[in-house]
Amino acid sequence: MAREFYRSQRVGEQILRVLSELVRRDLKDPRLDGVSFTAVNVSRDLSHATAFFSMLDPDADSSETATALAAARGHLRRQLGREMRIRRVPELHFSHDESLAEGARLTRLIDDAIESDRQRQEDD
Question: Count of CB atoms within 10 A of residue 72's CB?
């Protein structure tokens, strides 16, 4: 029977849970208010992990948040090692997740197209 999940996927899911809790509980940086992690991709050899984050405030500066996360990288990695009890903790990288903003943009475009069609039908 084939494995359904690779170890890197399971480790990524665990990192996602622990990282979210650590940022909420341990970090007091105001630039990290409203940050949530959407996914974590871990390399197959478990040496690197890219955590994708989004922000509740769509107008917030993602570069400031990325800078704050990069500054806390060492602390987060050390805490991940303690909480997860894995031999080798992946090197952490952070990237802004654009999918939520892109989804909102597409929803606005669809709503505008529907409204435009509705206006055209009313004019006829």
Answer: 19
Q: What is the pLDDT of residues 2-56, one digit of tens each?
A: 555 688 888 999 999 999 999 999 988 888 888 999 999 999 888 999 999 988 8
Residue 121 near residue 76, CB atoms below 8 Å: no
Amino acid at 68: A
The single-letter DSSP state of residue 32 is G
Domain topology for 7-98: GMP Synthetase; Chain A, domain 3 (3.30.300)
- The amino acid that residue 42 corresponds to is V
Q: pTM for the whole thing?
A: 0.76
In a 3-state reduction of DSSP, which class is residue 67? Answer: helix
How many other C-beta atoms lie within 10 A of the C-beta of residue 93?
Answer: 16
* Residue 4 phi, psi (nearest 5): -85, -30
59 residue type, one letter = D
